[in-house]
Amino acid sequence: MATVKNVHKAQVKLVKLPTPFEEEDRGLRLCGQPIMVLATMASSKRYKNDLTGIALVCDDLTIELEKEDGSVISALGTAVDFPFQSKAKGFVIDWRQHTVGCYKVRVNFDIDGTTGWYYYGAFNRQEWTMARARNTVQMFVTLNDVVRKDGINYRNSGFCNSIRFVGTFGEMQPNYEVENLTYHDRSRKKVRIEARRTYTLTTSYLVNCYTNKIDAEHLLVANNIWITEHNTFNHNQYQHFAVILDESKSPDYNYTDGVYASITATFLDKVAVHESKYDGNIEAKQNVSFDLPSGIDCSGTVAYLINNSDNSYNKTINNDFTLPDEVINIYVNGVLDSTVSVPTLGNNTINITN
Predict the structure, then answer these.
(1) Would you give the DSSP letter of residue 300?
(2) Which phi and psi angles does 22 have, rounded to 5°?
(3) Residue 235 pLDDT more than 80?
(4) Burial class of residue 31 (count of CB atoms within 10 Å of its CB; 0-12, 13-18, 19+)
(5) Dist CA 128 CA 36 (whole Å)
């Protein structure tokens, strides 16, 4: 006779905990090479005030800052909710609200009753000045997509982030795309020209805590990117300049033999407006004149006005001019005695002896 045994099926809920950022071991826990953040309460301009955004799939999220003396304070900033992600939390640190100093960011979480914390990174908060910002680039981004790495739908959340690093941005290339018509007589007519302007971002050689954040938390996930560079000798200056990644060229990592690497990325204008095109009249001859408008003197001469203090004498000249002699009538006792001519503005003296 078969023996019947009771079978119990236990349901186990799998809890996915966040993976701590192991690169902290390269001196970052001691703020040996922290990420620079600049901020100032004297201005609300975005390029003068850095933010740090942190998001996590969890039930509860608290961000703290560990100071150099080991004390821990609550991070100041804005809590972010995700309308299309029921189980996720975000927080954006507003560095303006914190004093100057070096901080380690601690992320405290509660995931299905399991609590813990990890270091997110080390940050050196300094007061914004042009001198401190010199040779740095600020990349400011907003997120609005489903990001697989994070497991978060950022849609309509307003989540934003920024990072500042030593580097350069610019080197604009117009990259004209030209469309012309060629006729049987080999004459050509323009149809369209568009400048597909590209811009190059090049970071200095950075450790992984920088490059990882630039790559995974900004370039890869951003819907909107604004670049500000502070290079005094740049051909053009860019402040909060809206760009989008060039779809034809992926960002490149450039490695050294050590722990450092730099990133080079190519961007396009966020809005493509640099274009001119055919609009129904290729010939365009009706109003063309090759004659100079009247009234324009192309001789290269310059006209000058000569006048005296009471404007009784006026003359316009455009070449060498000799002032006429000044005529002086001399009256003695109300009677015209004589008339003399003397050089105008000369050292003239008239003596009368009666």
Answers:
(1) -
(2) -70, -20
(3) yes
(4) middle
(5) 11
Here the tokens at position 333 are 């006792």
What are the strands of the beta sheet with 51-56, ordered from one edge?
51-56, 89-94, 77-80
DSSP H or E stretch at residue 208? helix 208-214
Q: How many helices (H) and strands (E) does the chain have?
A: 2, 24
Half-sphere exposure of 343 (CA within 13 A, CB side): 5
Pairing relationship of beta strands 224-229 and 241-245 according to DSSP bridges: antiparallel
Q: 267-291 as b/e, with b when 16 or more CB fall inside 10 Å?
A: bbbeeeeeeeeeeeeeeeeeeeeee
At 147, list the tokens.
């990001």
Higher-scoring residue by pLDDT: 4, 113: 113
Contact 207, 268 (CB under 8 A): no
Strands 35-39 and 114-127: parallel
- pLDDT tens digits along 123-171: 999 999 999 999 999 999 999 999 998 899 999 999 999 999 999 999 9
pLDDT at 329: 80
pTM beyond cutoff 0.85: no
Residue-by-residue DSSP string for 114-130:
EEEEEEEEEEEEEE--H
108 CB-contact burial (10 Å; exposed 0-12 / middle 13-18 / buried 19+): middle
What is the tens place of the pLDDT at every residue in 251-278? 999 998 888 999 999 999 998 888 887 7
Alpha-carbon Rg for the chain, nearest whole angstrom, is 37
d(Cα 203, Cα 208) in Å, to the nearest integer? 12
Per-residue pLDDT tens digits for 25-34: 444 444 467 8
Q: Is 93 helix (H, G, I), strand (E, B) or coil?
A: strand
Closest CA to 155 of 108, 88, 94, 109: 88
The residues with which 176 forms a beta bridge, in sequence order, are 195
DSSP classification of residue 2 = P
Residues of the chain above pLDDT 70, percent: 77
CB 169 within 8 A of CB 265: no
